Amino acid sequence: MMTSPDSPPLVSPSPCPAPPPSVPSSPVPSSPAPSSSSLPAPPSLPPTGEVMVMALGRKKQRVLIALTILPNLFLAFLLSSDPLITLSPPHHCHLPGPLPSLEVLNASLPWEKSDRLRDRRGPSQCKQYVNGSQSAVEDCVAGWDYNVTEGLRNNIVTEWDLVCGQYWLVPVEEVCFILGVLTGCLGLGYAADRLGRSKTLLTSLTLSVVFGVLVCVSPYPSIFIVMRFCLAAASAGVYLTLYITRLELCEPSLRLVVTMLAGLMTVAGELLLLAVALGCQSWRGLLGAGAAPLTLFLSYGIPGVFPESPRWLLLSERSSDMNSFSDRRNSNRDARDDESFTEMESEPSSSSRPHLSFPELFHSRNIWKNMCVLGFTSFISHGISHCYSSFRGDVRGTAPGFYWMYLLPVCAGGAAWLLLWATVNRCGRRGILLLSMTMTGLASLILLGLMEYLSETAITVFSVLGLFSSQATASLCILFTAEIMPTVIRGLGVGIILALGCLGRLSSPLMDLRNHYGYFLHHVVYSSLALLAVLSILLLPESKRKPLPQTLADGELYRRPPLGRRRRDHVPLLATPNPET
User: Fold this and answer.
1) Average pLDDT, stretch 48-76?
2) Is residue 280 predicted with pLDDT exceeding 70?
3) CA-CA distance, 257 to 421, in Å (whole number)?
4) What is the distance between the alpha carbons of residues 7 and 13, in angstroms, rounded to a whole number?
């Protein structure tokens, strides 16, 4: 049917009711079809952590990851130098005249049994005869002579005579250093969640340089101990902030490889530390060699060199940082063909971004359960490592050399990282953690139960096996925690696990303070707790190839998979995919 030009257009019938009479309806004008440019943009998904990382670009991502790995080489100088600067060499009372011969030593010094070496007698290290008469003895009055054959020729023990009556200052320094690491992990880990990764990293780097210089110029043991405590806290903050930033810059397939490379960089730093120690022969030069290169990394504060973690920006309230990130993405959007970057169009408003709610955190039972299990495992794995290193000396009375005691844990740590790289992505985090903790407990039970029947070679083999498995457990605990803790508390969560590991490490200087008396009971307690940790690991979830959780609600979703049967999800074919996956 034809219509005249003056007649109104036909309107198709509609089930909707007509407007009420009080509201007049205006006629629909005839206009041309709107162009595609004037159509409103379709609704897009909010940006996720994975999309934020992809928006950096592959090249930028690799550069930032390399910048987080390189400082580990020099952090090892500050965090692993205690065995070198606190090594107590053989010594005896200073005798007048030139270098005394063995006959003069026998005539001037009483003979006594060594504290830790069985059936081993030698000249006393802290006593001398009064006026050359062998009827009475007295403490050393003219200082000590040191026979340095290993490590640094000049360390804090030889410079300040921290032997005999002053030896207690050495374990105190070691305890204070570990407590400093513990304090830095907790305090700066919380700061990384609240202030941002970049700001916390720059603050920690600045403090590490300042306290590193103050440690090198310390004139007295008391000042040295205080400065070492502060240096340990700042260095732990650098290590922790780099660790979580590195992980947040990686997609799931890269997390293990990048963490393994950072671990091997730390091992290389510990080996380089020994080489530098043999070259400089001074504890001040050794610590200075670790603090000086950190000044180069202060350049991370230059705008554009080391930006903030994109995952943390997604949760923060700093809209200026988010806008700058979006502008940088928009400027390069034309050069990208990946349509997934269109999801960055809609930025979350300040009111929709999640905040850390302490009541919600206290009621996150699944997060606390995972943290308790991993913290307990970290405590056991760090504490029992010292038992394996000193087991042969405690049981057989044959103390190994310093280089063996230093290189064995370092090489075991490197081998542990290689094992984790080869197995964890195939067998899962939980399975390898369970296997390594089981090997740790079995090695302890064999050494404690059969030590009277094992040969020297067998004791060495099982000690190395236990040390290797405990190192793998400790390293995997930290990676596991960083993967299942949500971004909003990742710094604090990893800091708590590292702090509990520091509590386990406190047993080493405390045993040295007591000359290793009670080592058997000490080892038995840790072995029993290791078996309990094996059972608790079964309660952990699996984080292999899963995205990092962002909020507390995301972290609560990481639950233990079923043990007996596989879970089958009946998902419709046309279901909307999860943007996080």
Assistant:
1) 83
2) yes
3) 7
4) 18
Burial class (CB in 10 A: 0-12, 13-18, 19+), 94: middle
The single residue listed with the structure tokens 């997604």 is 314
Neighbour-count burial for 218-230, b at 16+ CB within 10 Å, e otherwise: beebeebbbbbbb
Q: Cα 574 from chain centroid?
A: 42
> 534, 555 in Cβ contact below 8 A?
no
110 closest CA partner among 124, 89, 99, 90 = 124
pLDDT-derived band of residue 44, with 50, 70 and 90 as boundaries? very low
Long-range contacts of 57-63, Cβ-Cβ distance < 8 Å, separation of 24 or more: 57/332, 61/249
Cα angle vertex 179, ends 173, 182, to 5°?
Answer: 150
pLDDT tens, 284-338? Answer: 999 999 899 999 999 998 888 888 888 888 877 543 444 454 555 555 544 444 4
Mean pLDDT score, 468-490: 93
Q: What is the DSSP string of 20-36?
A: PTTSPPPP----PPPPG
Helix, strand, coil shares of the chain, percent, nearest 5, are 60, 5, 35
Q: Is the dihedral of CA 63, 186, 485, 417 positive or negative?
A: positive
Query: Residue 364 and residue 310: Cα distance in Å, rounded?
Result: 25
pLDDT band at residue 522 under the 50/70/90 scheme: confident
Model pLDDT for residues 93-134, shown as the tens digit of each residue:
877 766 666 666 666 777 776 655 555 666 777 877 777 666
**What angle separates helix 490-505 from helix 365-389, to the nearest 10 degrees?**
30
- What φ, ψ does residue 42 adopt, rounded to 5°? -65, 150
Read off φ and ψ for residue 508, nearest 5 degrees.
Answer: -65, -55
**Reduced 3-state DSSP string for 99-153:** CCCHHHHHHHCCEEECCCCCCCEEECCCEEEECCEEEEEEECCCCEEECCCCCCC
Q: SS3 letters for 487-512?
A: HHHHHHHHHHHHHHHHHHHCHHHHHH
Rounded-to-integer distance, Cα 385 and Cα 146, Å? 30
Nearest to 298 by CA among 214, 201, 377: 201
- Give the whole-angstrom CA distance, residue 101 versus residue 208: 46
AA identity, residue 420: L
pTM summary value: 0.80
Other beta carbons within 10 angstroms of residue 492's beta carbon come to 24
**Which residue in this structure is represented by tokens 């240096």?**
231
Indicate the pairing of strand 144-146 with strand 91-93. Answer: antiparallel
Candidates 500, 558, 545, 532; CA nearest to 178 is 500
Burial of 449 per CB tally in 10 Å (0-12, 13-18, 19+):
exposed
Q: What is the pLDDT of residue 394?
A: 63
Distance (Å) of CA 160 to CA 58, 79, 89, 164:
53, 22, 13, 12
